[in-house]
Amino acid sequence: MSTEEIAALQAELEAQLASQRATIDELWLVVSAINILGLQLGFAMLETGVARAKNTKSILLKNLADMSLGVFVWLVIGFGLYVGDGRFVSGAPHDGFMLLNDEDYALFAQSYGFAITGTTIMSGAVLSRMKFEWYILISCIFVGLVYPVSAHWAWAENGFLSVDFDYKDYAGSGVVHMIGGVYGLVGAWVCGPRVGRFVQQGFDTKSVPRPLPGHSSTLQVMGVFLLTVSWMFFNAGSSGGTNPEQMRSASRALAASMIALSTSCGVVIIIMYIKDRTHHLAEACNAVLAGLVAITGPCGHVDPWGAAVIGAGAGVVYLCVSHVMLHRLHIDDPVDAFAVHGACGAFGVIMLGILDYQDGLVYAGSLDLLYGQFVGFICLFMWALITALILFVSLNRIFGISLDEDDQLLGLDVKYHEGYAYPEFSAQDVMEYNRTRDAATRKLRFGNKNRAHGSESWAASEASIHSAGNDLSFRSASSEGSETGWKKGRAKRNNSEDVITPPAPQRSSTGDDDQYV
């Protein structure tokens, strides 16, 4: 063979190898994109388990709407904003809008999974008290504008954070989870606490949180397991390809994710046992997610010991932030969306600047990467906070996005979705419960003939009413059986996990025997 023939054959072989490598890279993106969608099922199960049974349909439909409507929004505008060439805001070329370039199909599918993950984080923070239509509107704005801009800054080829500050965020501790957590924080604050979440302590003005346990620990734990599996594709799939260096990075990300979630869970279990001398399932579940969130950004850039440090720190950050939000700020976040995703996402972003195995402060002795990470944290956090405040506050002032007390007590399934997910519940049961509660309240207030003679003070009577109202449960008429006595019924209802605070009695002018709702 001549020299020219050998050169031509070599060029042809190289072209075939490049084509095969590109095909394998695209297959890697496709596989990870498919499995990332499992996060939606995991979040749906987790949120449903944390919520009351009367809100089951609402939670499931919100997650379904996030996934289905999110595709359309991401196709029309979100993906184009993400992949354009602008510095701060995406510019030309415009073939990302409406997905005009067929070479971007795999990237479109994978990045779509990242986009809807952020908005699903917000879903859990506002569950059971935000009107469905306004949640959908904010979700679409998040997927179409808020997330793609932040992703463009950090991950696009010309994004200002990645170019000017060498910002690193392997799979999105800041870009995905922190901004989703900030939206959850603002949403929970604007919508206010669930009915009965905070009660007055004695006769002073101090409010204290009261447990409102979810209706299914089984769904909650199964959701966490499914999230963990899908999260591995979320992190490892962010390697972007399958060449030896990229696959080593994916392997590092996978190992670091496993180490971080285990150390975070272990630390939280130990701390909670020291504090309460018992083992808390809900906190352990959130600790797993906290470790995964914190390691999502650094997972491809840290050694195993660094992953363990980040996981342990994430568990502590989660517990501290959750306590401050609930007990100090009185913000009701049912799934601890901000404590898990917002705070731990920010923690992961900063720790990457310290523990990066190449440029981190510990290894390189330089503050350059830490500075870039801090700038990235500030920019992403403020972008999310400002846009969230504009959306939630303005919509709430103009239209009112939170449900009133009666709708919360009846549940979103009755308000929006033609009845409860479980056939044992019905609106008639709730109405009958309200009537029974009001009758008991009137009995305590007006039925004691000896109160005026000092046998029972008015303050003691009011305390009894308050205690009775807090202890009443949502139960179907069939489950109550023949227990019509107040003391007997109250004793049984106190054992129910589904405890709610009833609304104030609304008395008809026609008499005490009328129906109350």
Offer a concise description of the structure.
The protein is mostly helical and 517 residues long. Helices cover 68% and strands 1% of the residues.
Written account of the structure:
Its main location: membrane. It is a multi-pass membrane protein. One of its GO terms (cellular component) is plasma membrane. The C terminus is likely disordered. The chain is mostly helical. Helices cover 68% and strands 1% of the residues. The chain folds into two domains: 397 residues, Orthogonal Bundle (Ammonium transporter fold), CATH 1.10.3430.10; 86 residues, no CATH class. The radius of gyration is 27 Å and the shape is globular. The chain has a two-stranded antiparallel sheet with strand order 1-2. The longest helix has 34 residues. Helix 7 packs antiparallel against helix 12 and helix 10 crosses helix 11.
